[in-house]
Amino acid sequence: MSQDPALHIVKLTDSFESLWTELADELGVEARFHETAVSATADMGAYGLLILSAGGEEAVGLDVLTNLPEASRGSVYLIGATTEHRFGIEAVRRGAADYFALPSDADLLRRTLSARVNAVLAQSASSIRQDADAFAAIVGESPALDDVLKRARRVAERGDVTVLIGGETGTGKELLARAVHDAGPRSEEPFVEINCAAIPPNLLESELFGHEKGAFTDAHRDRVGLFEEANGGTLFLDEIGHLPLDLQGKLLRALEQKRIRRVGSTENREIDVRIVAATHVELKDAIGRGEFREDLYYRLNVVSLYLPPLRERGNDIELLARRFVSGIAAR
Predict the structure, then answer these.
(1) Of 276, 270, 271, nearest in space to 302 by CA
(2) Among 116, 139, 111, which residue's Cα sits nearest to residue 317?
(3) Which of 13, 35, 9 is nearest to 22 (CA)?
(4) CB 252 within 8 A of CB 293
(5) Among 141, 159, 181, 315, which is least packed by CB within 10 angstroms?
(6) 265: helix, strand or coil
């Protein structure tokens, strides 16, 4: 049984025979011809579409449709010559996905099968990826992305190695950070994230390191910071290029000493956290402008991963489109 997306055509008559190879080529799938519907359903697997090409013998097509296994009928299209609407109604009543009268419905048939084939291809790709692969959410087959993912898989296994992810906004830096965590030895521990550009500078220190009751106005109780929440796991520092300079020094000490101190406290607390940072800012340029500490940059940039934008990823946009279409169709 084939698991590849394909058009499986049962030629109940020889009508429209030349159409199917042409249409399959247009859709980018294989056309497979069968003498009987039984042989077609045995071959079509989970991702095939069955075409009952009845020509002017619509009644024969209806009988064949009735005898198909019920599980197969939602992927079956009955093709005839008559424009009598009662045949279309009866075909759908017996479980067909649709009925098309050729040649008048040729364009509609093309559009319908194109949409269905795209959805099937996306479903097939999604099914292949639904395994234990932590990187399955990152869709793409381009050499530019493949190189990044190979390096990411290797570094994921080293649970103490700090990773710096670069790339333009929207390239999937958070997805990659999660994948590095999920594929590594800390996967059972917390993955905690913070967007350093989204928190006001006067609150960011408390968010990262926590605070003691009474440390400042409105500090009515002790608060655990994100470093402590992520202890044993991964702390993802998104938009690290926007971290204020005074906090950069405190972050550097935390990374070097593997200890943090809550705001308002005199007690150091041991931490065991993997740091994954991300930025769309070119940090070397920020260093030149005096906006980012060079020593912190080298502490973060133990392994550097750069996610290329879609314009550098060839046909990956088509794979993404299929994934989105499949998700929308399922909903």
Answers:
(1) 276
(2) 139
(3) 9
(4) yes
(5) 315
(6) coil
What tens digit of pLDDT does each residue of 17-54 get? 677 888 888 888 888 888 888 887 777 766 678 888 88
Report d(CA 301, CA 288) in Å as an integer: 16
Both structure tokens of 107: 């364009």
Which residue has 């381009």 as its token pair? 142
Q: How far apart are CA 259 and CA 268, in angstroms?
A: 6
pTM exceeds 0.70: no
What one-character-per-residue DSSP string does 271-286 give? ---EEEEEESS-HHHH
Specify the DSSP element, H or E, that contains 320.
helix 316-330
User: In 3D, which of 40, 274, 278 has the Cα closest to residue 172?
Assistant: 278
Distance from C-alpha of 121 to C-alpha of 128, rounded to nearest angstrom:
11
Q: How far apart are CA 226 and CA 191, in angstroms?
A: 10
Distances (CA, A) of 116 to 7, 29, 232: 11, 12, 46
Quick: pLDDT tens for 112-151. 888 777 776 665 555 544 445 889 889 898 999 999 999 9
Amino acid found at 225: G
Measured at the CA of 56, the angle between CA 117 and CA 60, to 5 degrees, comes to: 80
3: left (phi over 0), alpha (psi -120 to 50) or beta: alpha
Q: Hey, CA dihedral for 88, 89, 90, 94, is it positive or negative?
A: positive
- Residue 231, classed as helix, strand or coil, is coil
- How far the first Cα of the chain sits from its last, in Å, is 29
In whole angstroms, what is the distance from residue 263 CA to residue 216 CA?
9
Q: List per-block mean pLDDT (blocks of 10 residues) for the chain, which spans 331 residues.
A: 70 73 84 83 75 79 78 73 82 83 86 79 54 80 92 92 94 94 92 91 88 77 88 94 93 92 89 95 94 95 94 88 84 79
- Find how far residue 135's CA is from the centre of its chain: 9
Query: What amino acid is encoded at 23 in this protein?
Result: L
Q: Report d(CA 42, CA 274) in Å as an integer.
A: 51
Tokens, residue 261 = 């101190």
pLDDT at residue 45, rounded to an integer: 67
